[in-house]
Amino acid sequence: MELLGIHHLSAFTANAQKNLDFYTKILGMRMVKKTVNQDDPSVYHLFYGDEVGNPGTELTFFEIPRAGQNHDGNNSISTTSLRVPNDEALDYWKTRLDEYDVENDGIIEQFGRKVIPFKDFEKQRLMLVSDETNKGVAGGTPWERSAANPNYGIIGLGPIHLTIPELEPTEAILTKLMGFRRAGEYLHHSTGREVIVYETGEGGTGAELHIHVRTDLPRERLGRGGVHHVAFRVENEEKIREYLEELNQLGIGNSGFVDRFYFRSVYFREPNGILFELATDGPGFATDEDANHLGESLALPPFLESRRDQIENNLKPIDYKP
């Protein structure tokens, strides 16, 4: 079975309002859903994406208000890439990041592409990557009302970086279960160490994992500025159930079938302990809101709707004017 690419990535923040301001006002992404963590409705779950939050464009954050700082390390999702249309866009973004005093390494080359490594206000490890030479999975469409120039806007998630101590068991899951194939390697710009690239589906920036093998790092301790899990695109619920059956046959522990209302999922941990999710492309974020007004009010899945008053009373209001 073959995955279609990256679906979404979920990280931690300790401050929903500052997070919202950074990703919408500085990075110009659209907040496509303001909801809660379905497993803990006392905290926000914010979704950012392209014009309607198409699969492959969604960067999401759980708010954990008292979370300590992430301690970067091994067994982790160590960098999240965001795609922009071309090399010219990176010139725009270098100027914009500097204008807003966003920590960045400037424009460099990585795996034959131009990129800008940078960090948000909580030291979340991020990277803008140019789609100038991309021939794989197509990107999304920036929101025309973006705070950033939509001609240069973020069009989706790019390569996701994993840092692990043992390659072989993870490679086996990627290639034998998930349909990934080895696509090449390069030397990392700051460590000088080899990074191995795997791709799935149509390949390209929207369907890659970049794996750093490190035996010299302590295990990462998750906190604000860290990443919880990465999700991969699966066509529909039927395919999810086929994957679930295969996971069970292989004896790989998993969540079982999960209905997230906006998509259907199954979760499991790969051998180095990183949490993977397989998620369907639909139904999508316009299921319970008009596409023109996504993210403007608190959206709750049907099974939480009866608790709306209690949930809203426990959340600190956040100010969002799209």
TrEMBL record:
PROSITE patterns, per the entry: VOC (PS51819)
Matching SUPFAM superfamilies: Glyoxalase/Bleomycin resistance protein/Dihydroxybiphenyl dioxygenase
Gene3D superfamilies named in the record: 2,3-Dihydroxybiphenyl 1,2-Dioxygenase, domain 1
InterPro entries the record matches: Extradiol_RC_dioxygenase, Glyas_Bleomycin-R_OHBP_Dase, Glyas_Fos-R_dOase_dom, VOC_core
Residue ranges of domain VOC in the record: 5-131, 156-281
Protein name in UniProt: Glyoxalase family protein
